[in-house]
Structure formats: C-alpha cells, structure tokens
Design goal:
Length: 244
C-alpha cells in the first residue's frame, strides 16, 4: 500500500477530557495498519530535532549532543533559545561524561522561525517538548507528518498523553513510527521511558531508540499497553538496559 493511498478520512478520536485514558480507534480500518517493512533511518549523517527549548528540551539537546549527534533545537521564543544556550554552555561538559563511547560533541543549531520546516526537513528523529495541551500536540504531529522524511521517527516527551492520542492528523503509515520518550530531569535522572503503542509501534523503532539512548548513557525503560488503546489491558514495564 503506497503512502498516497492510505485512508485518513476516519482518524482515531482523541479524548476531549485530559483525565480520559482511553482512545477509540476506527475499527473499519484496523486491517489497514501498514505492513510495509520498516527500514531504520540513517542516524549520524542526519540531525535530530527537538521542538521546545524549555527546561526539558535543552537538557535533551545536551544528552544527544554529548554523544555526537547534530541537534536542531526549535522554539519560536528567542528568549527561550537564549536561556537554553546559556544552560547548554554551562552544562554540556558534564553531559559528555555519559556516553558509552567518547566522541566530539555534536553541534546544536537554534531555530526560531514560526515554520518548523527548516529544523525538521532532514531529521531522522523529532522529539516534541511543547506544552501539555493535547490540541497543540495533535497539530504538531500532523505538521511533522507532512514536513519530515517518511522514515523519520516522531516521539513525544509528554508524560500526560500517549502518542496514540495525537494521531488524528497523522497517516496510518507514520503511526507505527510514533511513541512516547519521556526524559527525567537530567543529568540527575538518566532513566528514559519509552511508551510504545503495542500492536502499532514498529518493533524496530523501539530497538533503534533503545540502542541510541543506551549509547548516550541513558537507561531506557519500556512501558506498553497490552492490546489496542480503548480495550484496556495491563500496562507493563521492562528495563531494556542498564547504565553503570
């Protein structure tokens, strides 16, 4: 099934109440979930992008830069970017002690335009760290679906909403490349929660992100809901790796 033939006319329905934890998937399209084999993206020759230069966005930028990744840090606020630059300058040397393999720190490039295209057009991974407002996140994910390469992994740093709540404007093919990736207040907390949508998120996506996080000196921990959202099920956690 080609990307142009994917049907997005009956999208999943996100919850309107922030306290709601279920999501209704369109059952008439369950069989249309993509079966095209997933090829992992090229990593070190392409940048990763972070949307939001706040307290977490700037810390995540340091984590990946310290492991040699080129980072595009986007925020429409010049003030946020200026504050982030001050934090990065002061703290990046500490983060360089985390990676398993020592490499020169990657460049962190700031982007402040209203259009996110320059920051994400060649990204292999985009991490959204925008405010915890579901309609905003739905719009962001839809925009990313349209403006990033087709192999780009889209993750959310949200601890309030699963990415399965953010797919209203995202095509079926892309949904298997989405998950939550929740960072703590690094550098003090190095555990990173990978929240996958079991039965939808491509297993290779989890393996790629686990490898990258481990290489950055983080401790990835997977959480997943058994069964599709809306069917309930047991939430389980699995420590994927450990960091000395």
């Amino acid at each position: 099934m080609s990307l142009t033939n994917l049907d997005t006319t009956n999208p999943a329905t996100p919850p309107t109440d922030p306290n709601t934890t279920t999501l209704t998937l369109p059952t008439d399209h369950i069989d249309d979930l993509p079966t095209i084999p997933y090829s992992p993206p090229t990593i070190y020759t392409r940048p990763l992008a972070i949307l939001g230069a706040g307290n977490l966005g700037r810390r995540i930028a340091c984590i990946f830069s310290a492991a040699g990744h080129t980072v595009h840090l986007h925020d429409p606020s010049q003030g946020a970017l200026h504050s982030a630059q001050h934090y990065i300058t002061e703290n990046l040397p500490h983060y360089t002690t985390f990676p398993l393999i020592s490499r020169p720190a990657g460049q962190i490039h700031p982007f402040s335009s209203a259009d996110i295209t320059p920051a994400v057009s060649d990204a292999w991974l985009v991490i959204e760290c925008v405010p915890e407002h579901l309609p905003l996140k739905i719009d962001i994910m839809g925009e990313l679906d349209a403006k990033t390469p087709r192999d780009c992994i889209l993750v959310s740093n949200s601890s309030a909403f699963r990415t399965s709540f953010m797919v209203e404007k995202v095509c079926w093919e892309r949904r298997k490349l989405m998950c939550n990736m929740c960072f703590g207040a690094s550098p003090w907390i190095r555990a990173v929660e990978l929240g996958v949508n079991e039965g939808v998120t491509e297993g290779e996506v989890v393996r790629v992100l686990t490898w990258v996080l481990d290489d950055c000196g983080m401790m990835p921990v997977q959480t997943s809901r058994v069964g599709r959202d809306g069917e309930g099920g047991l939430v389980r956690s699995q420590c994927l790796n450990t960091v000395n």
